[in-house]
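Notes continue from the previous slide.

Worked example: a multi-chain complex. Inputs as given:
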Amino acid sequence: KQEVTQIPAALSVPEGENLVLNCSFTDSAIYNLQWFRQDPGKGLTSLLLIQSSQREQTSGRLNASLDKSSGRSTLYIAASQPGDSATYLCAGYNFNKFYFGSGTKLNVKP
Amino acid sequence: DTGVSQDPRHKITKRGQNVTFRCDPISEHNRLYWYRQTLGQGPEFLTYFQNEAQLEKSRLLSDRFSAERPKGSFSTLEIQRTEQGDSAMYLCASSLSESGYEQYFGPGTRLTVT
């Protein structure tokens, strides 16, 4: 069974810092990978999708990369803002379903 | 594109009662997924549909749970004889298999079993 680990579980940084969130899979046979943001009590908002033929994706201040050989992905957030405070979840897709990590809870202090 | 919608947003029920949740996916999406999420955890896969066919069910989906997607449009998730352990957020997502399976989630239904 695919297990997904996200490190760190929680992170508190001052506004303006660049930061890296990590995600790793026990089974590196991932077809694609998606990063999400979740605000308290809400559904998940898609941030970035890295498809099977890609190694990274960028959207604004966000950059996600995927190393399939090691089963690891990172989400880089540049110049963090208080509005970035949320839980960030990674999900790997294989065998017709997504496997989620428990998330990294990010707090960006003004 | 109006997004994925779920109804109700919150449901409080007494143990032993049956509950039904509805999910309306993005209209052209052929895949629909149900997940359960408890506090501090990521979503756990329950089941998914390709059009109207239910193709896979998790072992988490006991005999008390049933899901349908008639005509490949909206879906319902029913829980019979609810237990306190069923209290969770139930999330629905949809995707288009031709676009890399990128999932779009609804706002979720928060179930509280008292």
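Summary box: Residues 41 and 88 of chain B are 11 Å apart (CA to CA). The first strand of chain B starts at residue 5 and ends at 7.
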